[in-house]
Amino acid sequence: MTAAAKLFIFCNLLGLAFSSHFRGAVIQWSPVNNNGAIEINHRIAWRRSYSVSFYCDSSTISSMSLLGGGALTCQVGCSGDLGSMQYYCTDFSVTEDWSAG
Fold it and tell me: What is the Cα gyration radius of the chain?
């Protein structure tokens, strides 16, 4: 990943880092072919009690319900949404009040 791409991601996520509901995220991308197509994967964590959109428990995991919302939107060099930011919950903590997927 180029320094410019890292800086772009850091600057876009900086504002979220101070929010009490956002716990963290990892966004990865890799080229799919030589035509410039890429595959984007993400893992994200939220405060579990923030909203029903982020609430996860054993039932949510076993039913493979999608959580979250919104879209990853292109900022430079392309247009539109690149994909959904919804996720399948894979982990949660009642005592630490977070869910992730």
Answer: 15
